[in-house]
Amino acid sequence: MKPRVLVVDNDPEMVSLLARHLEGEGRAATAVTSGAEAVAALEREEYDVVLTDLVMDGVDGWAVLREAQRRLPRARVILMTAFASLETAIEAMRHGAWDYLTKPFKLAEVGLAVDRALDDLRLRDENRRLRAEVEQRFSFDRLLGRSKAMQGVFDRLRAVADTDATVLLLGESGTGKELAARAIHHGSARRAGPFVPVNCAAIPETLLESELFGHEKGAFTGADRRRRGLFAEASAGTLFLDEVGDIPLPLQAKLLRALQDKAVRPVGGSEEIRLDLRLIGATHRDLLALVGEGKFREDLYYRLAVIPIRLPSLRERPDDLMLLANHFLARAAGALGKALEGFDEDATGWLLGHGWPGNVRELENVVERAATLARGPRVRRVDLGTEFVPETALGGALRPTLAELEARYIRRVLEETGGDKTAAAKILGISVRTLQRRFG
Ligand SMILES: Nc1ncnc2c1ncn2[C@@H]1O[C@H](COP(=O)(O)OP(=O)(O)OP(=O)(O)O)[C@@H](O)[C@H]1O
Ligand SMILES: [Mg+2]
Fold this sequence. Notes:
Elements (H helix, E strand, L loop, with lengths): L3 E5 L3 H13 L3 E5 L2 H10 L4 E5 L7 H11 L4 E6 L4 H9 L4 E4 L4 H31 L1 E2 L2 E2 L3 H14 L5 E4 L6 H10 L8 E5 L5 H9 L16 H4 L4 E5 L6 H13 L1 E2 L8 E2 L3 E6 L3 H6 L5 H7 L2 E4 L10 H16 L8 H9 L5 H15 L14 H7 L7 H15 L4 H8 L3 H7 L2
Parallel strand pairs: 1-2, 1-3, 3-4, 4-5, 8-13, 8-14, 9-10, 10-13
Antiparallel strand pairs: 6-7, 11-12
Helix pairs in contact: 2-3, 6-7, 13-15, 17-18, 18-19
Magnesium ion binds next to α7.
């Protein structure tokens, strides 16, 4: 199939000259002599390249550019104008034109500009195809990973998904425990049932029992009506107990009983409710160490850790880094409607060298922010906005203590989230409770 070019200019001689030249070079060219005709053509046909004059009567080149972007986001638009100015050129690029030609030009120049646009399109299509292939091969549900470590995790997830076994997901904050839990649910016979996530660290201790098991009307002050509880809501589906390590000891005993009896008793109720659910637990804590300290019941630990699966930290799997970074970039660029195609060498170097204490979540945040700032086509080192450490080291006390640094960082993240503690805790990789403890 010949590449298709739409040529737009008020001057009929100009368009036929350009069209004939492009046809001679093996392109299929359509010539129109007004912006309105161009818009009509864009509605009817697909083009790879749109070559349009900027200043025209009626519908001008800017409008053609906008319409081309709306109708054919893949197409490359080249603007032509006799009124050359640096500002216009910059405007053209800012509005997403691919290239810019100043009249008078040689026909060969037009041919070259069209060639460059077509080469770029081919490259982009090829990249897209490769990326789609890679993501299919290196993914399990929505989890991506090409590293040996993640391939091993996928094997284990696949193996347990279709059983009803209790799974305990372990791993640092932001390593994908929740995503893994959802993947198990989607791969199980319970996939048509609900997936009910509960963040045990985010629910105040006093409410946790009634949240989980439900309560009768009037069971305690404020219980003005009966509530089913999350265990009951997960019926026929999967209950995901996130941060199980944060469940207080007295409730651990009740949880153990519920798991043994496969039934729960709502607060203030006398009837037991039978459970039909699959339980998946997760924690970023060292549960065995908590058992050793007497903070977590050993019997409950063994109930939960029937099948433990550890999600490796991002540091342990550098092979996954650019796969994930490019995936998040493509997703963010799509959402922002920006043409961003990867990271430049400096940015790549920084990404690969960073320690990623916040793991995949941190990477996702950094890339999304970079996508917002980047002007493209490649993300640069400055777009990554990684100036935090030097900035704090320089600002204020020359040698801040760790506690001061921590307080400053927490304050800064809180500013970024506009004071939203839940969002801040997520970024910081700590529970809301811990955040409140450290920061009132
Ligand atoms: N392997 C992966 N592929 C794609 N996205 C991932 C992967 N791992 C994590 N993510 C993304 O990173 C973010 C954090 O993942 P998730 O919430 O599952 O982590 P977590 O281990 O539950 O973290 P926390 O302990 O802080 O709750 C999510 O937005 C998730 O979509
Ligand atoms: Mg989580």
